[in-house]
Structures are given as structure tokens and as C-alpha cells.
Amino acid sequence: MCGIIAYLGPRQALEILLHGLQRMEYRGYDSAGIAVLSQLADAAGSGSEGAAAAASAAAPGTAHPVKVVKRAGKVARLAAAVEAAGIEGSLGIGHTRWSTHGPPNDSNSHPHCSAGCEVSVVHNGVLENYGSLKKMLQAKGYTFSSDTDTEVLAHLVFDTRKEHPALAPEEAVRKALTLVTGAFGVVFLFSDQPDLLVGARRGSPLILGVGEGEYLLASDASAIVEHTKHVVYLEEDTLVTVRRGGYSISHITETGADGKPLPHDPEVVELELSLEKIEKGGHPHFMIKEIMEQPEVLANAMRGRILDDGSIHLGGIKPLLPRIAKASRIIICACGTSLHAGMVAEYLIESMCRVPVEVEYASEFRYRTPIIKEDDVVIAISQSGETADTLAAVKLAKEAGALCLGFVNVVGSSIARQTDAGVYLHVGPEIGVASTKAFTGQVVVLSMFALALAAERGTLSKEELASRGLALRDSTKLIAGALANADKAYEMAKSFRFAHSFLYLGRGFNYPVALEGALKLKEISYIHAEGYAAAEMKHGPIALIDAFMPVVIMAPKTDPTYDKIKANMEEVAARDGCLIVVTDEGNDEFDSRAEHVLKVPESPEWIAPLVYSIPLQLLSYYIAAFRKCPIDQPRNLAKSVTVE
Ligand code: G6P
């Protein structure tokens, strides 16, 4: 949700910023902008579209021209606009936006600047008290040119420097940030400081890339991996000062006995990410690449974790298993697709480990004064590891003294760092906004967790554990088998591309799959869809059924409620509903009964969510492709939701 990037080094900043923004576009794509400082020597003769040139007398030191170009729309629009602007300079900041305050237009795009561009800022997050700060600044004579919360930061830092001219610019930022409530990942650029970037984070991610004589700041690693693999994941509530000769990190507010901000010793770590993993690899969209690579990436997620004897080894949580095994309850908090994976986990854990599980929307959990006990285990599930509501649920659980585990894909992300322990999904970067491989990755990791917990609690026999472990490891073959039937989903998608509404029905383990199937379709094709527990259809949705309503029903033969699912199908057929049945290969029961039948390899009941979600992913993808929707960047959505 908004991506920020900054560069300071010997090279031209513009290309690096634009490339970084393109890589982070999945975080937000309704507008984009850059600000580049040209040192006076470089700046001679350059034109100035949208430029705010020399700074006013209020800023100390010599002012260099800062060129700002911002555009509503995608980064490609910004790239076309900057071409004509003759921008040169080796220090700059950039932003790709997902609007929170103010519609997506040129003036609401970031960077935001003080009146003469003495201070420019890019921001990811939401400033909760921006209204009162804005009033205070307006009373002092500052005028605002956007509807955003972010603009207050530019004026506030400018004002702080004006009021306290002896303060170093980074100290002015620190002082200004103490007045702010809410979440931010920010980077400031000063027109009188050609050798300085100041970044800070609270609640939104920010990483520092340490290259050869150059530095980058960004919301995520994909934006900088082509320049350096050495990064510092900035801790919560820290401020980083970057100069050409080095950088220093300190706490924003915490001070030592001497009253000075506490320094923070950064750990430089090596990124595991490779460039190839964040490219489309010949596919038209990231989403289809990510769907198709599931057998391979899920094998990676299980490698070294399921041994040849079927036993499970999850290093991150192994020492805690005795404590987890004693939990009186497991609470799972997540949002969106991750919540659906959590619902699958409820079925997995309760059936295999006999521990009560509650699954909660993190956004509800955090505000409903939940009862959390010290012997509860709270599990946060998140692809990005940055979802604001899930992160808040983690904090709440920790404050209550519960053990908090994170099941996260993005290494080094906030949830990964703030939970007591956890398991990474290891399915590689997911760039398509609609989650696919992260969902199956979550289900795989949660299945391994359930097996490890069942072993610890002795709720499954040794033989059962071993055979389930190996069956899970082999599930990649079943998934590959489901993908091999992609043609059928493609053909079906053609017939349904003009549908107005869909129902998805499933029972037991496939109830969350029905919810997820409906969510996928809504997200990328903009067709209304509802997921329901099949038996609940009678309690309302059945009123919607007519010949124009496609109803997708999951009917695995291994489901103990198979006969009841068939009865649910008859109820749809009796009302002329258009039946689409997903069932096992070799099951011909519906071939003449249903309008369409999608087949997948047969799987044990508890593995079915992994296999049955594949045709639903494909169906959504192909329908959206036929409708010519912007599949990887659906309207109004963002991959990483760092605001409430
Ligand atoms: C956004 C994304 C969804 C995702 C949800 C939770 O809404 O568009 O695809 O499922 O956030 O994200 P998380 O990163 O916490 O899994």
C-alpha cells in the first residue's frame, strides 16, 4: 500500500527511481511521482516542468533545484512525463500511491513539498492527527496544495527548521515526527542538503539498501534487489540518516541517559531474493506465473521440513512446541485470502490436534476487546507481513502475554519480526495483487504445523503422522495434475465471461476454498461472487438461483459429506441453476447432470483445499483475461495493506 523509494549515490537517480517504482507498483498504482535534486553544477540549463527551483531564504545553506514530477495513473505515465523534463541528479525520492486521503490526481500524488521545495517527502501510511496539524500550520500561514495527510509533513519539517535553525535537518525531522500520530514510512529530501536523505518508520516498512558507494531506501526489497543484496531492515520507530559517506540509525523518540536519541546498531543482512523471481518469466501476467509455479514453490516450502520418514521439522517453532501443545486455545488472525487459509487451518488443527481454534478477521479482533489468555496461542497469517490490522492483532496478543506466532511470506517483514516465532512460507515473492501461491503456501505450512502439533500432543498415531506427512509432500503432484487441466477452465471461462454473478459452494475443508474462489473472481474480474457453506444456501442465497446464475460446487468424493453435497446440487438443479461441479478425476457422476465439470486428481479430504483451489484460481484468471481486466493490478486494490 504505497511504495516509496529513494536513491543517493554517484549514478543518475531518475532511472533507478522509476525502475524501483515499477517493481513496487503492486503496492499501489493510482498515481506516482518523483523529486530529484540537481546539484547546482549539474543543474545549469535544465528545463523545469513542475519544478520547484530555488529554496526560499528560510532554509539554511545553498538551495539546489529540486525537480518534482507527479502524475495520476500508473508509473508508465510518470515515465513518459519525466522524459521531457530533462531531469538530472544523483539524489532523489519516488512514490507510487494507493489513495487514502484525497482522490488520485496530480496534486495529491507524492512527493509533497514545502512552498519552495525546501523539504520534499514521500510517505506510506496514514497520519491520524493530520487534521489538527494542518490547522496549526494553516494558522501560521502555510498554504496547502493537496487533500493529503502527507503534505503536513513537508510543512511541519520546514517549519521546525525555520523555528530551530540550529537543528540538523535529521533532528528537525525527529522533532516533527514526535508531533505525529499514525503510521509512516517516510523519506525526506532537502534542497539545501545535496548529501542527505532522512528516512523513518513507524508502522510501515522501510529498508535500507547498502550498495557500493550508494544507498537506497525502499518499502520493499523488490525495488532495490537489482542494485544491492545488502540491506538493513529498519526497526519499528527508527530514523535513518543517509549521507554519501555512510549512514546512522537511531530511535525516533527513545533517548539515553544523556538525553540523546538511542543509537540503533543495524544488522546488514543479505537478501535471498533474485531478480528472476520478480519477473514474469514469459507469462503474460504475474498471476498466471504464480499459479503455474505452485508445484515447484510448494515443494520449496516443504523442502527440509518434511523428512523421508514423513516427520515434520519446523525449525522456527520447534523449541516452542511443548508450550504450544499445552495451549487451551489457538486464535488465528488474518485478513483477506490469508484469513481463508486460517479457516482451512481451523479444520486441520481441530481435526488432527483436538485443540479449539478461533479464526478472526484481524480488523475485528483488535477492536472488540477480545479475551486473550496467557495460555492462548495467537497465530498471525500474512503474505506481506505488513498488513496493519494483523500487525495490530499481534501487538494486542503480545500485550496480553499470549504466545504469538507468525506465518508469513516476506522475510524480515514487520509481522515476522514482531511475533515470538514463526514459519516462513518460502514460496518466493508474490507480485500479482490477487493471492494464489501464497494461499496454497499458507495451507501447506499450516498443514505441516498441524502435523507437528499432532505429533507433540499425541493425537495421531505414528503411522498416521508418517503417512500424512508423506501425503502432504506428494500433494505437489496432485496440484500439478490439477494445473494440467487448465484448458478446461479456459474453455469454461469463455462461456462465463459475461456472467453478472457467481455462487461458490463448498462444505468442510472446502468451505474456505469456496470463499477464496469467490474472492478471486471478484478481485480480478469485477464479477460479483459469493462463497457459501453449501448447506447454508437454503437459508437465503437459494433465492438468487435461476438459469443465469453459475453455481460452482466442490464435490470431492473423499469428503464425508459427499452425499449431502450431491443433495445441495440437486437443489440448485431443481431451480434451473447453472451447475459447475468440481470433482475428482474418475468420477463421472456429474458428467451428464452438470453444465460443466472441472476435474482434479483425487486427494485425501484434508489435502483437498490445495487441489480444489487450483481450478478456481484458473477460472478467475481466464475470465478476467477474457474481460481484458488489469489482472495484476485490479482497480482499487493493493497488495500490502498498511493502513486500517
Ligand atoms: C490485501 C491483498 C489480499 C491479501 C490481504 C491480506 O487485501 O489484496 O490479496 O489477502 O491484503 O494481506 P496479507 O499480506 O496480510 O496476507
TrEMBL record:
Residues 2-245 form the Glutamine amidotransferase type-2 domain. It is found in: Cytoplasm. It comes from the Eukaryota. InterPro entries: GATase_2_dom, GFAT, GFAT_N, GlmS/AgaS_SIS, GlmS/FrlB_SIS, Ntn_hydrolases_N, SIS_dom, SIS_dom_sf. Its EC number is 2.6.1.16. Transmembrane segments: none annotated. Residues 320-459, 492-634 form the SIS domain. Its main location: cytoplasm. It catalyses: D-fructose 6-phosphate + L-glutamine = D-glucosamine 6-phosphate + L-glutamate. GO terms for biological process: fructose 6-phosphate metabolic process; protein N-linked glycosylation; UDP-N-acetylglucosamine metabolic process. One of its GO terms (molecular function) is glutamine-fructose-6-phosphate transaminase (isomerizing) activity. It is an enzyme of class 2 (transferase). Pfam families: GATase_6 (PF13522), SIS (PF01380). This is Glutamine--fructose-6-phosphate aminotransferase [isomerizing].
